[in-house]
User: Fold this.
Amino acid sequence: MIKQNFNSDTTASVCPEILQKICDVAKEKDYMLGYNQDKYSKEVKKIMQRYFSKPIECFFNVSSSGANILAIKAMKDDYSSIICCEDSHINRYEVGGTEYNTGCKIVVCQSDDAKLTVDMIKKKLATRSNFNYAYPKIVALSEVTELGTCYSLQELKKICNFCHKHDLYVYVDGARLANAMVFLNVGLKEILEDTGVDIASFGASKNGAMFGEMIIILNPIFAKNFILNQKQSMQLFSKTRFLSCQFLAMLKDKIWYKNAKNANDMALYFGEKLKKIGISLAYPIQSNAVFANFSKEQIKYLKKEYNISYYDDDKTCCRLMTSWSTSRGEIDDFINYLKNFNI
Assistant:
């Protein structure tokens, strides 16, 4: 039987606190308005506002890809382009969904750590004087990146400052934002408001929820009519209470932090265990992703028991993901199984 443990953090089940909240809401006999108008959605929005000093708006969405597209649609013009890293999710892993659904051209930057810099962005603005090119309008960052790396607060602020001085908006794909906040030891205000982000997603699906992402709008010009954008894009969930109640559970007693911290801690533990048996790491561990370099023979052996993902053309660098539920015992089992390869 193939084990799914480390293929993705989405292979983990729903954490007990969130599952219990969904069940509690389902047992309620009261009829409720849908489309973000239920009491749970309103309560979550009130709680979220306490984390920020300026007014924000929150919307609930089923998937991270949907959240990315909605945010970009809110910021774009009909002739806009999006600047992002080649390794970003919107470029590599959404079947061209962002370009298809927004009409925007994606312009990619090469980056060794999947992080953009001001210099990279600046070079992509050279086409603005030529009307034959799509107009660069949006910079899309991933926090955490697809290589498991994190932007520092200083890096985020520098990018946002530059973008706002040059007629650019900043979107943060925060499918694993909780993991970044744990790594940086910061809160929502510090990582989003204080850095100058315009819109961000706050992921739950990869952090113990059954499904769901929250779209946080910090720039008020994008909040007006956002729900119309959501409805038109077929991304407005009718029974939103089953989405928002999960965030209510996550925010209560900082379940989001507990889940993300376990995932991050297990990734660090995994990395140390791998290095002790001679396996090198391709990237620093700053979240819940471990990129390990194996021989092709080792990979063939591992795939007998584990479903693992390649992350390079040579198929020797593998991504190993930990989650809210990953235990040291599961990692030890993997390591012990790998040790038997040389016996």
Summary: The chain has 14 helices and eleven strands.
